[in-house]
Specification:
Blueprint lengths: L4 E7 L3 E7 L20 E2 L12 E7 L8 E3 L2 E10 L2 E10 L5 E8 L17 E4 L5 E6 L4 E6 L5 E6 H4 L14 E5 L3 E7 L25 E5 L5 E5 L10 E5 L2 E7 L3 E6 L5 E6 L14 E3 L2 E5 L6 E7 L2 E7 L18 E3 L2 E6 L7 E6 L5 E5 L5 E6 L2 E6 L3 E6 L6 E7 L3 E2 L2 E2 L10 E3 L2 E5 L3 E6 L2
Parallel strand pairs: 3-29
Antiparallel strand pairs: 1-2, 4-37, 5-6, 6-7, 7-8, 9-10, 10-11, 11-12, 13-14, 14-15, 15-16, 17-18, 18-19, 19-20, 21-22, 22-23, 23-24, 25-26, 26-27, 27-28, 29-30, 30-31, 31-32, 33-34, 35-36, 36-37
Length: about 450
């Protein structure tokens, strides 16, 4: 990863990010965004060397609606959720101690949102923690209704807010806004925040719910705002928003933003918003979801979905996206990996991750990056997310089973497993769904269940 890049994001059913160029974060000291500092769900430091011992619960934190896990800076954990106050839905951001989850500050905003499919009316993203060029410590959130907020990290006070959905005419999608803001520093424009918006023109606002096939775009798949005051700097991309998160990579000698939006994979110049390349990537099914964050290895980009297309490995070369390998469409038995809401982990030339749309057709598997060849499958029949901690995979299935797994292409090799849904004997009783990948900060691991976040530590 380029030393000028730092990011964060969130997510459950949807994912989106905040991107930061400049101010390299301390390695392994924080987890400042979705998927961690290097956008790869990886901590180079293992929490323990003795994985077979059961971890102890350091603290638990009761949480409200939402699916995203929080972010960490130093000795503070920041959690984004929603609560109902006398019938009024409010999105809430809390700063808590990493020692005991005691509340340091709590702020909230009124929002108006109702999920079309009955999912929780809370954030699908994680906060992004940044330090700007002026040395200010800030935290950026993107709520389920599209409220983009920049706050001071020390007390939660608002720097600025933009209701992106109303300002850009976003027609509500099936599962709400899931993008976490992306903070980026340009030599000319300075600090900016980039988010996936996907607005539509006024004439589309009266279409009935669920009619996204009739909704058009306004070239606002991505919008960049000045971090200082929220001024729009650029907008780009003829697409609607997905549940993924933008990320950065060095491609053809320039910093680029890579975004898997609703209909296409986009490569955008980070400084100007100019589109460098785009490639159609969406199942024909109306309710289909693009949610995983693209993985990057040099000039190669891996993307995946679970409805029809499966996975594809692209190469960005001479300003074009070329296909290195592609799964056969609508043939799930022959597809290498079908990522739903979880992003896999790459270790060397191998991918490890959950594959499948629903529990009945889901498994955890190892796939060769360069060829798409499936090397092994653990047919667990439940969805799972994954984080790499040191040299071990932390595989968390949605029912609460945490498995410590050796990342080897030879076989599925479990070192230890712990049922986090159990109560008593030091276990917190986390409830379905556990959809966010574990956060690893030093010796501590943070996991989110339905109404509770738990922090673990191996003694």
């Amino acid at each position: 990863m380029d030393s000028k890049i730092a990011l964060i994001v969130i997510g459950s059913r949807a994912l989106c990010l905040v991107l930061l160029l400049a101010h390299t974060p301390k390695a392994n000291a924080d987890w400042p965004r979705f998927l961690g500092s290097d956008i790869d769900s990886t901590s180079k430091q293992a929490p323990t060397e003795v994985w077979t011992e059961q971890p102890s619960t350091v603290w638990t934190l009761e949480v409200g609606d939402g699916y995203g896990i929080g972010s960490v800076r130093g000795d503070r954990y920041y959690h984004f959720d929603s609560v109902s106050d006398s019938g009024q839905l409010r999105e809430r951001l809390r700063c808590t101690s990493m020692d005991d989850a005691s509340i340091q500050w709590s702020v909230s905003d009124k929002i108006d949102y109702r999920d079309m499919f009955g999912y929780e009316d809370g954030p699908r993203s994680s906060p992004t923690i940044v330090t700007d060029q002026a040395g200010r410590d800030l935290i950026v959130t993107m709520g389920v209704s599209g409220l983009l907020t920049v706050r001071n990290l020390n007390d939660g006070s608002v720097v600025w807010q933009i209701p992106t959905s109303s300002q850009y005419g976003v027609v509500q999608n099936f599962f709400g806004v899931a993008c976490s803001p992306l903070h980026l520093v340009d030599e000319t424009l300075g600090d900016m925040v980039v988010v996936m918006v996907g607005g539509s023109p006024p004439e589309d606002q009266n279409f009935p719910p669920m009619a996204l096939d009739r909704v058009s775009d306004t070239g606002t798949a991505l919008v960049a705002f000045a971090l200082r005051d929220g001024r729009e700097l650029w907008k780009t991309g003829n697409d609607l928003a997905s549940y993924s998160s933008p990320r950065t990579a060095e491609l053809d000698g320039r910093t680029s933003i890579i975004t898997l939006a609703r209909g296409s994979l986009w490569i955008v110049d980070a400084a100007t918003g100019n589109v460098l390349a785009d490639q159609d990537f969406r199942a024909e099914k109306l309710e289909s979801v693009n949610a995983m964050v693209p993985l990057v290895r040099g000039d190669q980009i891996f993307v995946s979905e679970c409805y029809e297309i499966g996975s594809t490995l692209f190469q960005f070369k001479a300003g074009k996206l070329e296909t290195l390998w592609r799964d056969p469409e609508r043939d799930r038995r022959r597809q290498s990996m079908r990522c739903h809401w979880a992003t896999p982990v790459r270790v060397g030339n191998y991918l490890y991750g959950g594959s499948g749309r629903n529990a009945a057709d889901s498994d955890f598997r190892c796939v060769e990056w360069s060829t798409g060849r499936v090397l092994w499958v653990d047919e667990r029949r439940t969805r799972a997310s994954v984080t790499l901690a040191g040299d071990k995979l932390l595989v968390l299935n949605e029912r609460g089973l945490l498995q410590i797994v050796e990342p080897t292409p030879e076989r599925f090799s479990v070192v230890a497993e712990f049922d986090l849904s159990a109560s008593g004997d030091g276990l917190p009783g986390l409830r379905f769904p556990l959809w966010s990948a574990p956060v690893v900060v030093g010796p501590k691991v943070i996991v989110r269940g339905d109404r509770k976040v738990a922090c673990f530590q191996w003694e």
